[in-house]
Each structure stands twice: as C-alpha cells, then as structure tokens.
Specification:
The chain has 8 helices and 28 strands. It has 395 residues and is mainly β. The longest helix is centred in the N-terminal third of the chain and has 7 residues. It starts with 12 loop residues before the first strand and ends in a 6-residue tail after the last strand.
Length: 395
C-alpha cells in the first residue's frame, strides 16, 4: 500500500478507437505471486517491467534501481504515507506508461527504494501501480483468465447484477464495509480499505484494536515488527478469527492481524482496517470508481484454504534472489524448538533444492499441518540438517 502522490492534472490517455466502442480497451496478463498481483508494464518504451497492481496505491512507484537503469531522475523530494509511516519519494514527471497497449501520457512517477519488498517476495519488482488506472477506467481482475480487464467506464457493458457492493473513495483510497466475528461471539462491522497490494487477509487498525480491546479476543497468536516503505515499524499480532463477511460471502476460520502502529495507514482512526488480497483473490474483482461500486464474483480460488504459518519461519531471499534466508523465527514454534536460527540459509527441504521453487511455493510447503520436514541449512558455510513436524502457530 502506497498512499498519496495523486497525479494532478490526470494523465492524458490514448485509446484505440476500434476497441473503445466495445467498452473493453485492454487486457493485461498477470501472475499471482503468493497473494499479490504481478503484471508487466513499460515505461518510456522500456522492456517489460514487473509491477504490483495495488488498489491501495495512490502513486505510481518505480524502484530506485529500475529508475537508474532507465536514466530516470527526480526533480522533487516528497514524503508520502504508507502502511506504517512516512516514506521519502522522489517525484519524476512527464513519463509515458504502456499497459497492455494502453498508453498513459504525462505520468508522474515516485522513485522509491522497494528492495525490502523484493526480498520478501523473492522476485524483482520494478514498481507499483493502482490509482493511475483505477481513476480513469473500470477495472476487473479476472483470476479465471489471469487478465486485468480495463474498461472505458463511459461505455462499458457489464452487468453487476445482485453482487455489487457500494464503495466510498476518500482521496485515492477505496473503502467498503465488512463484518468480522471472533470465537467469543463478538462481531464487528466497519469500513475497510480495499487493498490488493496487501498479501494479508485482514488487518485491524490500531485505534479500532485498542478501542474494542481486540487483543483480549486472541486465544493463540504470534507477533513481530513489520515495515512498509518507511523506516517506521508497527508491532503486529496474528491470530485466528471465526468469520469474515464481505456482502453475502462468508469465510470461516482464517488468520487476521492486529496492528499497533504510531504512524501510517495502520494508525488511521476512521477505518476498521485493511482488507487484503488474501481474501480478495478468491473473487474476480470489478471496481468502477465513477459508479462507486465493486462486484465480487467467486472464482476458481474461492474454495481454496487459507494458509497458516506451521513452521515459525519468515523467509526472504538475498538481493540476487538466489538464496533463501531465515529472516525471523517465532518464539515457541517448531523451527525454534528444532534449533534453527535467523540468518540461516535454507538449501533443501525434504531433499528438494529450494532453488527450484519460488518463495511462495516454499512457504506453502512449510504450511502443511502435521507433515514432517527435513531442512538442510547453511550456517556460516557449514551444512546441517534439522528435522521437525509442522503445526499451526495459531488455531
């Protein structure tokens, strides 16, 4: 999530007139990397670049390294709000962006260091985009075809039927309402930010957590410090909730988090929290900001189970995305009990080289309750094996 840095005036867009009358102006292929939407765009006629499609992104961000490789320089340093605090961004104006043949002119880019995000995802990320497209088009993220469909919102023909949900827009942030229930029977309804750039299911904001004493609702939990683009951190507790309702759709027994943050979107007092793509990816999501509606259509992922950390490991890659490294180990977890340590490099899991898998696949391998795993570790150049049985950290 990257808030702010709205483009004023709106960028000029060149439309293909042959498709305009049909409403659909572009289809952009994407891949699902964990719970994040990764698509390819071009900036200033560059080769394809990997961008996160983020409905919470009020700015179009380009990674510092990518900007340098394209000789893109900034002309103004600004501060913009992210999930956990303020981030320093360098503005660069007057760029051309190509998304699936749809060309945006006079685009303002925010140059930022997103290396931390890259290492957490285990792949090169060149940027983040959201508001640039959403502010001008109706957009459908179709997980059945793996296409982002871009519609001319003045002409498109799309039947929302009975599955439409009202949304509100404040600045560059999209809100809807959901209901959350705990095992205690306590139920809460409130306004939430719609954020495909968050890989989580749902995160409660700090004021809502404190005002409703939600920490007392946790039976089991694990905790750690997190960061977004800023250097400021938030303390986050992850627990299980009994149910989450979006309109007429209900999910039962799923992980959610509660943030204790002093700054950033997680500290906002208005919203109940942030609805992430861990939930949204179960639907083909259609958003039309002009009509202020969002539709959710259950897709091929609708019945997929929510993954829960069963190892106690948080993993990242090195800067070259070649090695998998233990970034954090939760207290009392199977990994800690087995003797693994932060900084260890994972070489193999059950005899399979981790270099043959993407990072989300490795995390899924370590989310299988009851499975015994043998992990080969490189610690300061010495190889050693560790055997333990996976179990959920929360239930």
């Amino acid at each position: 999530m990257i808030l702010g840095l709205s483009v004023t005036p709106c960028p000029k867009v060149q439309l293909d007139e042959s498709t305009r009358t049909e409403g659909l102006v572009s289809e952009i292929p994407f891949q699902l990397h964990g719970s994040l939407i990764i698509t390819q765009l071009s900036i200033d006629k560059s080769a394809p670049l990997n961008f996160i499609f983020d409905t919470g992104a009020g700015a179009t961000i380009i990674n510092e390294g990518t900007a340098a490789s394209l000789c893109i320089v900034g002309d103004e340093i600004v501060s913009r709000e992210g999930a956990t605090g303020m981030a320093t961004i360098v503005r660069s104006t007057d760029h051309m962006l190509d998304a699936g043949g749809l060309r945006f002119q006079d685009v303002t880019l925010g140059i930022a260091d997103i290396d931390r995000i890259e290492r957490q995802l285990g792949m090169q990320i060149d940027g983040v985009i959201g508001w640039e497209i959403l502010s001008q088009y109706a957009v459908r993220v179709n997980y059945d075809t793996m296409l982002i469909e871009i519609y001319d919102n003045r002409r498109f023909a799309y039947d929302l039927g009975a599955i439409s949900h009202p949304i509100a827009v404040r600045g560059t942030v999209i809100f809807t309402n959901i209901t959350v229930a705990f095992e205690s029977g306590n139920t809460f309804n409130g306004k939430v930010m719609v954020d495909t750039g968050s890989g989580n299911t749902f995160s409660f904001n700090t004021p809502f957590t404190e005002e409703n004493n939600l920490l007392a609702e946790m039976d089991t939990y694990y905790e750690r410090e997190i960061q977004s683009l800023s250097n400021e951190t938030a303390h986050v507790y992850t627990t299980m909730i009994a149910a989450l309702n979006v309109g007429e759709y209900e999910f039962s027994t799923l992980p959610a988090s509660m943030a204790i943050a002093e700054a950033g979107a997680l500290s906002w007092s208005g919203p109940m929290g942030i609805l992430g793509n861990g939930v949204l990816k179960h639907f083909n999501v259609f958003i039309d900001l002009q009509q202020k509606v969002m539709s959710l259509e259950p897709n091929r992922l609708y019945h997929d189970q929510f993954e829960v950390n069963c190892s106690g490991l948080e993993l990242v890659t090195d800067d070259a995305f070649q090695s998998v490294i233990i970034d954090h180990i939760y207290a009392g977890s199977p990994a800690e009990e087995a003797g693994l340590e932060a900084g260890d490099g994972i070489v193999q899991i059950n005899g399979a080289n981790v270099s043959d898998f993407q990072l989300p696949q490795i995390k899924s391998m370590l989310s299988q309750d009851g499975q015994q795993v043998e992990i080969l570790i490189d610690r300061d150049g010495e190889l050693d094996g560790y055997l333990f049985r996976l179990r959920p950290l929360i239930d």
